[in-house]
Amino acid sequence: MCGVVGVVSKSEVSPMIYDALTVLQHRGQDASGIATFDKNKFHLRKQLGLVRDVFRDQHMLQLRGSMGIGHLRYPTAGSQDRELAQPMYVNSPYGISVSHNGNLTNREDLSKELIEKNLRYLSTDSDSEVLLNVFAHELQRQGTSKPTEKEIFKAVKATHKRVRGAYAVIFMINGVGIVGFRDPFGIRPLIFGSKEKDLLGPDYMIASESTVLDTLGFKIIKDVNPGEAVFISLEGKMYNEACIGNPVHTPCIFEYVYLARPDAVIDNISVHKSRMRMGAALAKKIKKIKPDHDIEVVIPIPESSTTSALQLATTLGIKYTEGFVKNRYIGRTFIMPFQKKREKSVRQKLNPIEFEFKDKVVLLVDDSIIRGTTSRKIIEMARSAGARKVYFASAAPPMRYQNVYGIDMAATNELVAHNRTEVEIEEYIGADWLIYQDLKDLIEAARTGNPSIQQFECSVFDGNYITADIDSSYLQRLEETRSDYKKIQKLKLD
């Protein structure tokens, strides 16, 4: 999960990209970057840290140009090195930079191809650098001094044929324009829109979430379809083309559970409404399993579960209250790189309001349970605040499998639901009762917003990997290289 944005304008784009990145900050807190192009010069600023910390006035003044791209990194593959921050850049051909959200599942094979066949050498272990070089090579094969939209779309089609996995990506081609496209399944989100600028012609933006366009005054044109590419020239002309036949639209369902902002609309599905439906479905399950429940109050774990919790309470006819005060200056704990840091941040992030818990049977609602240790700490906090009983509800089903498409769930032994029954998970987190959402209900909660989408990427719940190139050996290698333990060992070696 990362955040990407690209803008072509008749004026300076860096302020717009900066504002867009602040709106997308929830999608990545590890590193931030902006690249722009102005009068045959390429400008780049990237660094570890939040947007507000990476960019100062002097940096913004240097990021000149009417075309640019931005990126927010949340590490899934690789380390927290500055060299892995994006946008990444190659000189040949033209000068191309990339902002990428997702993970390639055939990175190792592509790396060998690039070196042995394409004579392109890599400086990092980032799959984004691999994707950048594949596209650059395919564009170079077109053999023109300045590629047209037709030649760019040919390069996109060739890139689709070579790469596998999840990718919502924006390339900036110096002196030419920006091009954005999604993988053939549309796993990761991408949307584009325009804003009229009087007689100068419209500005264009491509971004990860609709909220960015709304906030900056852009009119949404549409989501980029699976396999589709959108090209916006430096002169402000927009072109789009389907670059793969018969795509199977399979967006990541975790976008609706947790990743996206609640005010986003992804693939014509309101994230807010989908979370409302998750809460209603969970309430119906509670009524079915425990019609004589003794729940006195429903309390959300802020903030992504708030919508589901409120609808759950409404459906059950039970009091809803916010019993935890959130420190908004602590980042999203799920996307923090190491478990000890996540655990420490939970207590810094949340503080209970004691009288909302005192002597009550409390149902805590969270969007999901991933590693379980943070859920356990929250339950301990509720008990310390005086709760008589603490029940725990997850708006998502048990997560038992690795994610290979851009979410930091690489090691199954770090997932509390892996090889555990729901009763065992209940005991582990210390809840008096634990209830999970059913997968069919979660899918329906999202699909109701857009019935044309027949399936969702749900591999963390069901172990079905839609790219059909994932086997046990791949998953084992992933676990060996991307677990928290391996990341810590690498840091020690560095």
Describe the structure.
33% of the residues lie in helices and 22% in strands. It is α+β, with helices and mostly antiparallel strands and 494 residues long. It folds into two domains: 3-249, Glutamine Phosphoribosylpyrophosphate, subunit 1, domain 1, CATH 3.60.20; 273-439, Rossmann fold, CATH 3.40.50.2020. A seven-stranded antiparallel beta sheet has the order 3-2-4-1-10-9-11. Helix 5 crosses helix 6 (149-162), helix 9 crosses helix 10 (306-316) and helix 11 runs parallel beside helix 12 (373-384). The protein is globular and about 75 Å long. The two termini are 25 Å apart.
CATH architecture of the largest domain: 4-Layer Sandwich
Widest sheet: strand order?
Answer: 3-2-4-1-10-9-11
CATH class (first level) name of the largest domain = Alpha Beta
Rg on CA atoms, Å: 23 Å
Please describe the biggest sheet, giving its number of strands, its sense, and whether it closes into a barrel: 7 strands, antiparallel
What is the domain total for the residues?
2
**CATH topology (fold) name of the largest domain:** Glutamine Phosphoribosylpyrophosphate, subunit 1, domain 1
- Molecular shape: globular
Low-confidence stretches: 490-494
User: How far do the termini sit from each other?
Assistant: 25 Å
- The total strand number stands at 22
Return the average pLDDT rounded to an integer: 92
**CATH homologous superfamily assignment of the largest domain:** Aminohydrolase, N-terminal nucleophile (Ntn) domain
Please work out how many helical segments DSSP would assign: 17
Q: Helicity level, as a percent range?
A: 25-40%
Structural class estimated from helices and strands: alpha+beta
Relative strand content = 15-25%
